[in-house]
Write a structure and sequence with these properties.
The complex is a heterodimer of chains A (about 80) and B (about 240). Chain A is mainly alpha-helical and about 80 residues long. Chain A has one domain: Non-ribosomal Peptide Synthetase Peptidyl Carrier Protein, Chain A (Orthogonal Bundle), CATH 1.10.1200. Chain A contains four helices and no strands. In chain A, helix 1 packs antiparallel against helix 2. Chain A is globular and about 35 Å long. In chain B, the strands form three sheets. Chain B has a six-stranded mixed beta sheet, with helices on both faces. In chain B, strands 5-6-7 form a three-stranded antiparallel beta sheet. In chain B, strands 3-4 form a two-stranded antiparallel ribbon. With about 240 residues, chain B is α/β, with parallel strands linked by helices. The chains are: A mainly alpha (about 80), B alpha/beta (about 240). The interface between A and B is large, with 40 and 48 residues.
């Protein structure tokens, strides 16, 4: 059982996850946004971002992929590669 | 000796305790500047199905001030309201009887130095979960001098006699493994492995709400096991 109770029913978008993890507006989340340019970014929030994305999209990234996530586009493309498989 | 260095977080999520579990000692980087919109003074629980922030009231917090120069506003009303909010939303959780008193004791100390309080609540939570890792406040032990970035981290590692420095995977781009190797320090990165996580939690955010959420719904032994679900990989 991954989740005992599921209380949030709204589908999660990548933009919403970024917005929630870094407390920024969804409107500023675009593919060219660099993680290091987000003032609330730190290595721990990066780890939380990965956990949120992996959970929401039922994927698991490799350590190298995680290390290479520099922009929103990087995360989106890694997700697309998973979906293509 | 394995060392981690991280800004202190308020009631952090599981990943913070995984990092703590991976090392013998964690130095709380409390002389780093405060991060507005970060996780230093706030975290989330679930309230009526939605994420809800618990936010420590601070005096004169800004991104230009180090964490250890910021004070908590001693606000009994905020403490009562926070406890009540948690109580109302988790009272039927199986471990509320243990976690609500723990939270009350923690919040009772929410006054004075933000840094001291964050150290205290991390120690209390780690002890409850059963993580024996030493916790230090960087500002108390390691003069900052003019060092920044990885030079500061390396300096703390050397002062501590660390053989290994462990960071979360988002830190890979920040560190030069060769620089650490030249000082005789191995650089490792935590790779959380949550695919087999079987803990109950409050929804789509998975284990990313405050650790309080997991502790409310799961035996502490299971949470302890979850803190050890990671791999360490070289930088």
């Amino acid at each position: 059982m991954r989740s005992g109770i599921s209380i949030l029913s709204q589908p999660m978008s990548l933009e919403r996850i970024f917005a929630e993890v870094f407390s920024i507006s969804e409107q500023v989340v675009n593919d060219s946004l660099a993680l290091r340019d987000i003032s609330s970014w730190d290595s721990m929030s990066h780890m939380m971002l990965i956990a949120r994305v992996e959970g929401a999209f039922s994927v698991e990234f490799t350590g190298d992929e995680i290390a290479d996530f520099r922009t929103v586009r990087d995360v989106r493309e890694a997700l697309s590669r998973r979906e293509a498989k | 000796m394995r060392l981690a260095i991280m800004q202190p977080y308020f009631l952090p999520y599981l990943g913070y305790f995984q990092l703590m579990s991976a090392v013998d000692k964690i130095a709380l980087l409390d002389d780093a500047n405060f991060i507005n919109g970060g996780w230093i003074n706030r975290n989330r629980i679930a309230v009526q199905g939605e994420p809800h922030w618990l936010t420590l009231p601070l005096a004169k917090a800004s991104q230009n001030r180090p964490i250890n120069e910021i004070e908590i506003v001693d606000d009994p009303m905020w403490k009562r309201k926070t406890i009540r909010t948690v109580e109302l939303n988790y009272q039927s959780a199986p471990f509320a009887g243990q976690i609500l008193p723990l939270l009350s004791e923690i919040l009772r100390e929410a006054r004075g130095s933000l840094s001291t309080f964050l150290f205290y609540q991390l120690r209390r939570l780690a002890d409850y979960i059963g993580i024996p890792t030493q916790i230090e406040q960087a500002s108390m032990r390691y003069p900052k001098d003019a060092l920044t970035g990885q030079r500061r981290i390396l300096d703390i590692c050397v002062r501590e006699g660390a053989s290994t420095y462990v960071n979360s995977p988002g830190g890979r781009s920040l560190y030069d493994a060769e620089l650490f190797a030249s000082a005789g320090i191995e650089l490792l990165f935590l790779d959380p492995n949550l695919s087999a996580l079987t803990l109950r939690h409050s929804g789509q955010e998975g284990p990313c709400l405050s650790i309080l959420d997991l502790l409310m719904f799961n035996p502490v032994t299971a949470v302890r096991e979850a803190t050890e679900m990671f791999r360490l990989s070289p930088g």
